Amino acid sequence: MKLLSQLRTSSFQLALLYMVVFATSVFLLLAFIYWRTAGFMTAQTDETIEAEIAGLAEQYRGRGVNGLITIIRERVARDPNAKTIYLLTTEDFLKLAGNLETWPEGSPSEGGWVNFTLSSAVGWKGPERLARARIFEVQGGLRLLVGRDVDELTSLKRVIETAINWGMGITLALALLGGYLMSRNTIRRIEVINNTSRRIMNGHLSLRIPTRGTEDDFDQLAENLNQMLDRIVYLMEGIRHVSDSIAHDLRTPLTRLRNQLENTLMSVDNDEAREQAGRAVAEADQLLATFNALLRIARLETKGNSSDMKRVALDELVSDACELYEAVAEDKDQTFEQSLEPGVMLEGDRDLLFQMISNLIDNAIKYTPEHGAIGVAVRRDGDDAVFEVSDSGIGIPDDEKDQVFQRFYRVGKSRSLPGNGLGLSLVSAVAEIHKGRIILSDTDETQQPPGLTVAVYMPALTRARKRIRATQAEQALAPATGDATGATETDRA
Fold this sequence. Notes:
Number of domains: 3
Low-confidence stretches: 479-493
Strand order of the largest sheet: 2-1-5-4-3
Strand content: 15-25%
Catalytic activity: ATP + protein L-histidine = ADP + protein N-phospho-L-histidine
Structural class: alpha+beta
Shape: rod-shaped
Transmembrane segments: 12-35, 163-182
Protein name: histidine kinase
Subcellular location: Membrane
InterPro entries: HAMP_dom, HATPase_C_sf, HATPase_dom, His_kinase_dom, HisK_dim/P_dom, HisK_dim/P_sf, Sig_transdc_His_kin-like_C, TCS_sensor_his_kinase
């Protein structure tokens, strides 16, 4: 699988492109060499045949047909296994002289050249071989064939072709290996940057991309990214400090103002003034809730992994939260269904998880009209513990589902309802601390409105993890012996 992922990288594809260009260049070079070599050898054979024909033509002009027959017979008799092939026949292909018995099959080219096989079919006494000859007519209707045995030339061409094929194969293999080795080094450097970036995105803002000190392109990229991260962290800390300071500094005077308004509300007798004071108290409560939520989210984001992580039975925690909200759902005449799978355990901060669960149930009840339906479920899904809340409320459009976790963001349909747009931001912060993920989907796409289903997936405790934690608890209760600490490194499922 790792090899396949490496083959998809841009560095390997670039090396592959270079390999194709290099292999194409090698192929063209070898093809040119083969063309020149084979062409030269073929031209030499043709020149030898032409020289032989020229000699026979001179004999024919000086001595006539009988002299031509005599010279052919002399040459065949002098060297019966010679490379040169002769055949002189009448117009009816009756043999007059030569080392072939019958005329070979095959139609000659425009220049009179023909390629054929030397075999018993043409009266060849030796092993089958390839031959190339030229045919022309002699005055008086005679036919003359003069050729050469080209079997060795053909074998040499095959050897060259085989060498070229093997050379191309070796070239491609070496280029592929070189591309793999080159890309592997590049991928390692990129993977270091990716891994560090992922950890930084998961909240480890103090991490920086390591450098090798070689001052190459990757080191320069890492240094630029590190400087950018330093600047981003500085700006984020400044903004967070300002917002936290504002929230903290304003919370105290707002609390005093709210108490004074409440005292005013209790002291006035005029109904109109009492109503105005009541609205002012409600607005002050809303402002205080907003500031408290901001401070709570800021603490969660800077808290990272909570030190209060303990074993939590998710079904029991959700059951406790449902008891608090069943009465609220009854006031709106909403059906409140629970499906809690027992024994779903995870490691987490009980208070934060309870706050997350309460926020989601409260949102479902708030944004679902009267006579609607609320569903709460806990289940185990593979290695995850899943908490799910579904409703038949106004829902969230698909193009806004990625934005609702931003602070103060509110869906257009919900702006008329009370709220500050911080509930899902708080839920997201709690889920991130517990290494969880949140999935938003429509409850029923066929209905209008479609409703909303919020599912929070968090790593569950496996049975092996439970046994290890039980063993640790027993070791903690048992008397310590020697230097044993009873600590065991475990992995989250």
